[in-house]
Amino acid sequence: MIKSQRITSKYFNKSKFEDIKSILKQIAIHKNMLSLHIFNNKALLLNKEGIDKLKSDYKIIKNDYISSWNIQREMQMLIDKYLTTLKKITQNRRIRIQSKMIIVKYKVNTKSHKKGDTKEFEIKFKSTKLSGLVKYLAYLDFNKPLEEQIFNENILSVLEYFKAKPYFNRILNLSKQIQGNILSKVKLKEIPEYSSIMLSSSVNTAHISIDDTNSLYKHWFNFKMKNIKDENGNRVKKFLRLPIQINNKYHKIKDWIGKEFVLNLSLKQNKVNISTTIEEPEPVFKSFNKAEGLDINVKHNFAVLSNGKNFDYDGELVKGIANELLMLDKIGMQNLNDKQLKKMQKLYRKLQWYISLEIHHILDYCEQNNITDLVVENLLFRDRLGVINEEFNIKYSRLLKLLRLSDVKNMLKRQAEKRGIRIHITPSQYSSITCECGSIDKDNRTTQEIFKCKICGHKENADLHSAKMLKDRLFANVLREGLHNLDDFGRLIPKKLNKYAIKLMLEKRFELICSS
User: Fold this and answer.
1) Both 271 and 299 in a single domain?
2) What's the total number of domains in the chain?
3) Within this chain, do residues 361 and 431 fall inside the same structural domain, yes or no?
4) pTM for this prediction
5) Whole domain around residue 57: which residue ranges?
6) H helices of 289-337, where?
7) pLDDT tens digits along 319-369
8) Closest residue by Cα to residue 451 from 354, 383, 404, 380
9) Using 50, 70 and 90 to split pLDDT, how confident is the model at 288?
10) CA within 20 to 30 Å of 321's CA: 149, 309, 342, 345, which one?
């Protein structure tokens, strides 16, 4: 299994450090120029021919110090980042035709609704040859003949069929509109003052060496930049040699045989980080013994297990960090000075350390109580996105984005993997508003604290109830198989399903309970 690993340099002389900062500053300037070029020509990202054209455009940057290979590599990485963004925008975009609307009304008066009120509303869609053609055209260059860009005979025949129709221009305009909408969502990627740089073992002769003759520093990271002219006009190689900190227990230097390294400043900007990839053994998980659902939130506690165990957190600490981040957020990221940026980075380091510590306590409890499997939501805080946090008077979505807590499940997964505990990820939809009786209604949870079913009257702590519903998705066959796939280690990973499909699956699960 391939994993990344990072080594940090020891303190070194000021002149050498300024050389490193100069390289990272130059590459940042170049990357911003390349990023702007990609952004201004983002329509080229829609097809392979355009992407190849963009990749060759790295030649617009020329530098006497940084090699063409380095610039080309950074260009490819920038294009990959833009393509990742574009993929996220388009992956859930389905072009379909509305087929019908389903409206189900209440036939009699109930406790909560009157006769004639809408009980269910759903729009049904279907895919046709026309919708398929519109989607295909949305990724073509409209300045070139369409036929020259289509290599699929079936698509060509559909195109020829609709070209004969009087409304073909409307089809083209719709495709152009969809393309414009997709591209409008791609934002310019701005690079900070000091960026990272990719170094190659072949181009930059980047490698780690051991110097047994040096009494202070044994391990060194070495690399060179492009040959440059000295004061006499002679070509010379600029070598850089950095002492690095090695933890023999954690860093397996013999495995640092990667052909490429990434060099960047530490968050404190007083050291240099060097990263590469290493080969590590596959994780080994414990035999299944006990599973629990885990609901994570930032209201009254950090997390709740489905067995009732609460994991509290230092509310004053998190509140203090959040308040300081709110003040910096009001100033605006682009307007922060160096001192404010360093303060913000320090706050995020402190917060990440604290969240990691909370996760450590959860996993300690799991090991002590023989819990081998945990089920958590894919989007841990989705149910709270429309709710105002009373303490900060802002939406939970804004607070959670500010605190960068959306990655908690991945932090949990990484730490659990080292302990042999499986983390199962399940879709977040309806987990907090579904009752054991089968009722799925947003009115079941009118507050963040209490769950109370409108049908059967079941009432309990909302976070505990949510954790129980998450656990059910592992043990109920129809939910386990219908909502998830399995990875190579037997962990649940959510299928790409819309909320309607997930709701139908949940309803099917409770229908099976009632019929048994």
Assistant:
1) no
2) 2
3) yes
4) 0.66
5) 2-89+191-279
6) 315-331
7) 788 888 888 888 877 788 878 888 888 888 888 888 899 999 999 999 999
8) 383
9) very high
10) 309
